[in-house]
Design a protein that fits this description.
single chain; 353 residues; mainly alpha; A middle domain of Talin 1; 13 helices; 77% helix
């Protein structure tokens, strides 16, 4: 069979345009649906009587993390790209924490973390614990260390850790919630709110599936006349992570502009808790679909992403605990350090991958 003719420059540029347009379109759709999903989730929270802090930590966190869930499961179980799945999850955690630095830059009334309550210390500590456990799974479940089935064990530990974390957070918040008697009107409002939330959640699933497909295509696509490739690790950590974190970004910026800083920070910390808990779901999806195991086939480069996320979360925890009003150039020293860690990790991951 004769070799195929080389592509012309026009064909190469047209292929580059199509895949780039697909990514931009998917990102815009996810951004829009994420905003609508957050609005509907906030309405569900209001008609159910939950407080703003708990809404950010659990309800909005789960809603805005739905792209990570759908994209992670699709890349691991449908596409069979474990590196994309892990990169998407760990990269989203990294990007979410960088959003706190952006919030501090936008907030003009002092350090943004000074505005949140001490109750946000717990989700920060839980996030560090789950990230450490996820990083341990990536490190130990490898060809030269533990067998691939140990990935299910680490996954089970992550699920238990997430359930315990949410349970403890719920117990802390439930004491602040005052239940009122429900009449027929309130029941109808709740039913309508949940239906609207479910509708937009369904659209997010569709958008997430398309996003996972376009991400896999980008990881294998050869760009430009030099036929440059990014690779699955870098695409997952940056392209997919940024795209699937657009809901967190839009919700957090909108909340800060409305003065709801507690909800914005809670959304970021709660989203990271949920994101790490997606790893065992991806592992299970890959096993069911008989695709490559997630922990066993994850690149060691993701340990750098996890380590940077752990360090950034620790800095946020210290800032919440210290309650310092010091600023440098309109930002707290802690959020400046968060931004520096994010930039350094991004450069390191790009070089290594």
């Amino acid at each position: 069979m004769p070799p195929s003719a080389p592509l012309t420059l026009q064909q190469i540029l047209w292929a580059d345009f199509k895949i780039s347009f697909g990514l931009i379109a998917a990102m815009l759709v996810v951004f829009y649906i994420g905003r609508k999903l957050a609005e509907k989730g906030d309405r569900v929270a209001r008609v159910s009587g939950l407080g703003g802090s708990w809404v950010g930590l659990v309800l909005l966190a789960c809603a805005t993390s739905m792209p990570e869930l759908v994209t992670g499961v699709a890349t691991a179980g449908v596409v069979g790209a474990p590196d994309l799945a892990v990169g998407n999850i760990m990269g989203s955690c990294l990007f979410n924490l960088a959003i706190i630095a952006l919030m501090d830059l936008l907030w003009r009334k002092g350090p943004v973390l000074l505005e949140v309550s001490r109750s946000q210390e717990r989700p920060a500590l839980f996030g560090i614990a789950l990230l450490c456990l996820g990083a341990a799974g990536i490190y130990f479940v490898a060809p030269d260390r533990l067998a691939r089935d140990w990935g299910l064990g680490f996954g089970a530990a992550l699920v238990i850790g997430y359930i315990v974390s949410v349970r403890m957070l719920f117990e802390r918040k439930s004491s602040q919630t005052v239940e009122s008697a429900e009449d027929k009107k309130r029941k109808a409002e709740r039913s309508q709110a949940f239906r609207a939330f479910g509708w937009w959640a369904l659209w997010m699933i569709v958008a997430g599936l398309f996003l996972s497909w376009i991400g896999d295509e980008i990881s294998r696509h050869k760009f430009g006349p030099t036929r440059f490739t990014f690779g699955a690790t870098w695409v997952g950590t940056f392209f997919l992570a940024f795209a699937t974190s657009l809901p967190e970004l839009s919700v957090s910026i909108s909340a800060v502009r409305l003065g709801a800083v507690e909800m914005a920070v809670g959304n970021v910390l709660g989203s990271n808790l949920f994101n790490v808990a997606i790893l065992p779901i991806c592992e299970t999806a890959a096993r069911i679909a008989q695709r490559p195991a997630v922990f066993y086939n994850a690149s060691p480069i993701h340990l750098l992403t996890a380590g940077a996320s752990i360090l950034m979360t620790a800095v946020v925890y210290v800032a919440i605990k210290r309650r310092s009003s010091r600023q440098i150039g309109g930002m707290a020293p802690e959020t400046i350090l968060v931004a520096i860690i994010y930039i350094a990790a991004s450069v390191g991951i790009f070089i290594l991958s």
